[in-house]
User: Fold Alcohol dehydrogenase-like C-terminal domain-containing protein from Trichoderma gamsii.
Amino acid sequence: MTKGKGADVVLECGGVDTLAKSFKCVAFGGQISCVGYVSGKQTSSQMNTIVLALSRNVTLKGIVCGPKDRFEEVLQLYQETEVHPVIDRTFEFLEAKEALLYLAKGGHIGKVVVKIT
Assistant:
C-alpha cells in the first residue's frame, strides 16, 4: 500500500502493545496520533517511546477523548439545538491525498471531510 515507505499518519487506538507495531509501520517523519488514554498507559512491557520517536523523526500526538457521559451530553445538545458543523468540502477515501493538499492550502472555511465508507 505504501510501497515500503510506511504510513504518513497512524491512528493508534490499541495501547502500548499496538503502539510498538505503529512505530514499525509509520513513515520516517510521520505522525502517530494516540487516541484516548489507553494508548498512554504503561504496562509490564515497557517501551521507550521517546527514543523510538526520535530515531524515526516521528511526531507522537495525543488525542484525549472525554468520558462517555460527556459525549452523550454533547450529542444531546447537538440533537436538541440542531447545531451542525460547517462542512467546506467532502472527499472520497481514495481522494485523501487531495484532501490533505486542500487542507494545507488553508483556504477552507469549516471542516474538510474524508469519507471512509
